[in-house]
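Question (not urgent): is this output format expected?
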Amino acid sequence: MKVKKIPLRTCVVTKEKLPKKDLFRIVRTPDGKVLVDETGKMNGRGAYIKKDIQVLEMAIKKKTLERHLECTIEESVYDDIRKKIEK
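Got this back:
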């Protein structure tokens, strides 16, 4: 029986390699909007962040996502991520 390969991605804040399902993909679309990618297949520049409040707070403080996505991120995007983590 074949063992199914689990896709790993690196969190841009902690640099941990984690399964894709334990991370959020944040995308800057070609038209410049920043969104949380639920499907993992949205077009644009993406960055992965661990589903953890402390990691999100660290990303906000150090502006890690802004550097990786090469744009400024509105507070509403961070609020959206925060709500999804708390679910």
